[in-house]
Amino acid sequence: MTMLPERPAGAKRLGLVIDLDTCVGCHACAVNCKEWNTGGEAAILPDYDKHGPEPDGVWFNRIHSYETNSGGCSRTVNFPRSCLHCEDALCVTVCPTGASYKRVEDGIVLVDTDKCIGCQLCSWACPYGARELDENAGVMRKCTLCIDRIYDEKLPPAEREPACVATCPSRARHFGDLADPDSEVSKLVEARGGVDLLAGLGYRPTNKYLPPRRATIPTPPVQPATASGKGLSAALLGLLDKALSR
Amino acid sequence: MEATTQSTAPKRTVACTTCYMCACRCGIKVHLQDGKLRYIEGNRDHPINRGVLCGKGSAGIMTAVSPARLSNPLRRTGPRGSGQFEAISWDEALRIATDRLARIRATDPNRLALYTGRDQSQALTSYFAQMFGTINYAAHGGFCSVDMAAAGLYSVGGSFWEFGEPDWEHARLFLLFGVAEDHDSNPIKLGLGKLKDRGAKIISINPVRTGYSAIADEFVAITPGTDGLLIFALIHCLLDAGKIDTEFLIRYTNAHHLVVDAPGDPLHGLFARDPAGFELCFDRTAGALRAARALGTDPALNGVFTLPDGHRARPAFALLAERYADPQYAPEAVASRCGIDAGTIRRIAAELAEVAFNQPVVLQQAWTDTDGHRHASMTGRPVAMHAMRGVSAHSNGFHTCRAIHVLQMLLGAIDTPGSWRYKSPFPRQIPGGPAPGRARVPGGPLDGSPLGFPRGPEDLLVDEAGEALRLDRAFSWEAPLAVHGLMHMAIARAYEAGPDRIDTLFLFMSNMAWNSAMNPGETTRMLSACDAAGNYRIPFVIVADAFASETVAYADLVLPDTTYLERYDCISLLDRPIGSAHGPADAIRIPVLRPDRDVRPFQDVLIDLAGRLGLPEFATGTGVPLYSSYADYMVRHERRPGIGPLAGFRGKDGQAIGVGAPNPRQLDRYIKNGSFWQHELPAEQLYFKHANRAYLAGAKAMGLLESDDQIVLQLYCEPLQRFRLAAEGHGSRRPPERLRARISRFFDPLPIWYQPLEQAMTDRAKFPLYAITQRPMAMYHSWGSHNAWLRQILPENRIYLHRDLAVQLGIRDEDWVWVRSRNGNLKCRARTMSGVNRDTVWTWNAIGKRTGAWALAHDAPEFRRGFLLNHLISEYLPDRPGQAADSNSDPITGQAAWFDLTVSIEPCEPNTPDETSPRPAANPLRVRRTAEGTL
């Protein structure tokens, strides 16, 4: 058992807001994440069987595209899945060694690999499938919210955001403090009706998902098909009769 | 190179260059740590991608270390296709190539056929071909998007993707026709995000709902190949409702130009002209014929008028209106064929009219048109369109693409606020020219670039009998406007023609023996076929590539290229630039890594070869090479005085843009600027570029255009009529008898729709389903499958079909099925879905690999379960009695008709092995390295 920290009211909740209305499922976030983190503080994200029969590896972020059917209407949803940095993170409380922990200051959930024994209880506990075992090192790996970017003062301020956010080509990913009601991300969640994933489980995820929208163009009632005879319509002939000026 | 050295180890540097993980040309920042690749990210200052980077670009690190990289020049030792080679030195490789090419050039330069793939140095490769003197050159456009390019350039002087883009900032309704997950990549994703932010509506017209279609506000599951009919129905509705921008038409298009109506006469269907050659219109105020471009007129768009010679003539618009007002194009008449209900078509037409005419975008920006009118503001029709492969990969794609441009013109939605816009340096003058190069003096260059823009039969490359001069039959009566060539026919035609016509087939970065071939089995047979004496039917094959693709095994000589991170390169305004609606731009690549193999940049090698061969413009008259490298050429070469491969930082002081003396420090200036250059147009020049006086004058001054005349949009495409008249017996240059009916039918100056050619010749009862491919977002053709990260995302593909169809056929998810076509049988695994046209099956493009290629393990999923639809496609249409088969192409442009395929599908027999079929025998590269090897 590992305890969640006492977090003062109003403490930062850094996380992501992911817009399912604009995610095209391109995998940019997943690959750029792997690229950044495999050479960064998270240490190498292993790849198994790179050029062999069962290519596989550790990813902090995976994209699923699936179809939904409701009311006879079908749609395709692209769904990026990564750690949601839950406020009541079961992956932390099940950890037998204290390796899995939630930071007091910003709520980011991390793994201390020096303490991790690779028992995988956390991955069993996480309902979102956000943790993966590094089979080479025997430790768990997970999204760090690019902690080595967001606090890196050597980076220009605009670049202090997770790699997945910086690279997202349709700008479907947003980063910020979800505890601050005036932050851009909080305002976005408010305006767009952002939701918790599997809210009923009660883990209070920090990351939010924005539901798909449908834009429409109201038009005058569609005319029933005119009895189609040869020749041009009165409307067109009227238009063509109007004087023009070159 | 911009360096940020830190006080403590490790040593980090950052270099800006240009991505090449697909054709999008994004700016990237490459981070190195102790000289090794650490991280690649999008360059936030770059005009193409604004800091974002897709999954492919982000996986560049894995391509840079791929085991599929070639490491030495290779000479074939075993039979062609066996994969057996020996490593040789560059000296020897270049000597072999030079000897061979010099012999060809001294006899008949056309016996060299140079075909390049997704080549971003076509300004160089085509120039090499021209200076060598061969007409047989093309790049990959003929099997990709030439329908879009040709239809666009002949209609509006620009085109979708390369030469145009939607006005993402102002569009309110966006129609996306047949666009899969690329073409282009990041700019479209950025743009879709912007549209969504503003609540603009996106309609995707596509048989398959993936990627961009998935986030569209409306998905229209059209039947493949019927987009033209849908557009005609939309035009029909707009005509019916009188929702046409007639002011736009008379100012900017040839809608009011009078067309001679005199069937049988050599002038029939051409514009009526005055004695000075200027097109005429009928001025209703004066009640007389006037020059169509004259000012102060009230031109008629309807009616019949008599010309001085007694012929009757009608405004082009009247012909158009009569055609599409016909009941055969009513929504109800096309609905079942398109697979879209008539109500939906009528509603989309109403939405187009609503947004175009009731919600105009008005920018308070004054500008002056080419007639000298000063406009206080810019008023636009915020309806934008984009189209790509789903339209272009059909044999009716040219006309369908032209139909989209006609729809845009009728709505007044070309280069206006909110509509589709030109990417500078486009628009260009229409209708085309210069003609493709044809003639040469002995030892001299071809008199023009091998690829050109014919204006009529006089520009074709045909012999006295009217038969093709080019190997691939581009610019012949079989494909008169084949402005990108017919690369998909190159191997088949070389095989047919035999060694007297073609000695050496020189391929650069093109996987012509696999996923870029229609019918790879037959293609590889032709590549390795011998005559009775045991000589290869195609005598010599040179392949230049960075990776061990399926095609490398069929080379006699392999010239190993570097990866994109190991060389200089130039994304030139002379070729396929990165300009945008905001202004012209170009870019370079710089070597960020030093090759750890005995490889050389292909462009360096080509320039070296050109020097050794003593080609004009690459060597002095006495044969001394002019350029030491591509980087040297990029800076010093001048195509015309003051105009070179790079437009930025020209002149001695680096201040000139477009035109200026070569600047020896030009590359340094590019590197300091993030490896790109961009000229931001003033606000006054941002729209109406085809008729914007300030823009056209500026473009001329920058050397982008030769004339600053108004570019008149071609609602009616007169050059097509010139070909048709020839087919009807007029003029001195006429098609051979067997092609007359075909030319007459297809060369209609107004868009037509016809059933795709292969479908019309196929037994549809036997093959009732349409079959197409889509592009996965995380892969670019065959470039991704050897990438250790990308192949984790998509190591094998499935054939997808509609759930209802699957139930009907007894097919469940993951079942093995047989997909059959007139050309063969393919065994693969199925998956069912709802977001697909009910009569269409589809799969991801280029995932299947030939066993042994790309340095993958022998049991890789790409080999065992990944598959290509290509096995079901033939590069020939079905035979007709007594006649050689035509190519499987658009009859106007020669565009490869990949998506005309029809198939049947059925479950496999039970207990079938878990393996795709066909699976050609493995032929991995086996390279013998001798003691004298160069490593």
Percent of residues in helices of chain B? 10-25%
Shape by Cα distribution of chain B: globular
Please tally the helical runs of chain B, counting DSSP H or I stretches of 4 or more residues.
Answer: 26
Beta-strand residue percentage of chain A: 15-25%
- What does the largest sheet of chain A look like? 3 strands, mixed
Structural class by sheet pairing and helices of chain B: alpha/beta
Summarize model confidence as the mean pLDDT of chain A. Answer: 94
Extract low-pLDDT stretches of chain B. 1-6
Structural class assignment of chain A:
alpha+beta
- What does the oligomeric state look like here? heterodimer
How many structural domains in the coordinates of chain A?
1
The tally of strands of chain B reads: 35
Radius of gyration of chain A using CA atoms only: 24 Å
Provide the β-strand percentage band of chain B. Answer: 15-25%
Strand order of the largest sheet of chain A: 10-1-11
Q: What is the CATH architecture descriptor of chain A? A: 2-Layer Sandwich
Gist?
The complex is a heterodimer of chains A (246) and B (935). Chain A has 246 residues and is of the alpha+beta class.
Describe the structure.
The complex is a heterodimer of chains A (246) and B (935). Chain A has one domain (14-210): Alpha-Beta Plaits (2-Layer Sandwich), CATH 3.30.70. Chain A contains seven helices and eleven strands. Chain A has helices at 28-38, 90-93, 121-125, 147-150, 163-167, 184-192, 234-241; strands at 14-19, 47-48, 56-57, 61-70, 73-82, 100-102, 109-111, 132-134, 139-141, 173-177, 208-210. Chain A has a three-stranded mixed sheet with strand order 10-1-11. In chain A, strands 2-3 form a two-stranded antiparallel sheet. In chain A, a hairpin with a 2-residue loop joins strand 4 and strand 5. Chain B is an alpha/beta fold and 935 residues long. Chain B has a domain at 757-907: Barwin-like endoglucanases (Beta Barrel). In chain B, strands 7-6-23-24-25-4-5-35 form an eight-stranded mixed sheet, with helices on both faces. Chain B has a six-stranded mixed sheet with strand order 30-32-31-34-29-33. A four-stranded parallel sheet of chain B has the order 11-10-9-21, sandwiched between helices. Classes of the chains: A alpha+beta (246), B alpha/beta (935).
